């Protein structure tokens, strides 16, 4: 701690260049930490965007399946819709799409029924976060869409 006229408490004067070199040293120490934090923020953002794409694919698949007239048509249109949505969003994965159409035939007309779509996608972390990063991330989304209560099933 310095007092007036550049003197320390012990009464010794401080040399004017005593702090020289501290800033570059601090920069060398802090730069990798700041770059690492920046990389984590980018990775988190890209993972969130990819999860949003999988959510949208599940929503599209359930909606397309719910307007189909038969369980077979619901399966086909739901799977095609999910794959198209993921391809359109540029998500590089081979999705596993499961469409639950069990309520198409088990619930009588006039009672509420629904179709559920589950979309799962394994994405390499090198595509999501940072190039060269090993490993994968499994992104999964589920969405349920109601069937028309009074439509013939």
How would you explain this protein's 3D organization?
Helix content is 47%, strand content 18%. With 153 residues, the chain is α+β, with helices and mostly antiparallel strands. The protein has one domain (22-146). α1 runs antiparallel to α2 (71-88). The longest helix has 45 residues, at 22-66. The model has no long low-confidence stretch (mean pLDDT 84).
Mean pLDDT across the residues is 84
Helix count equals 4
Specify Rg, calculated over alpha carbons. 29 Å
The low-confidence runs, each spanning 5 or more residues with pLDDT under 50, are none
Mind describing the biggest β-sheet? 3 strands, antiparallel
Strand order of the largest sheet: 1-2-3
Q: How would you spell out the order of helices and strands?
A: HHEHEHE
Head-to-tail CA distance between termini: 84 Å
How many discrete structural domains? 1
Tally of DSSP β-strands: 3
Q: How much helix, percentage-wise, in residues?
A: 40-55%
SS-derived structural category: alpha+beta
Question: In what range is the share of β-strand residues?
Answer: 15-25%
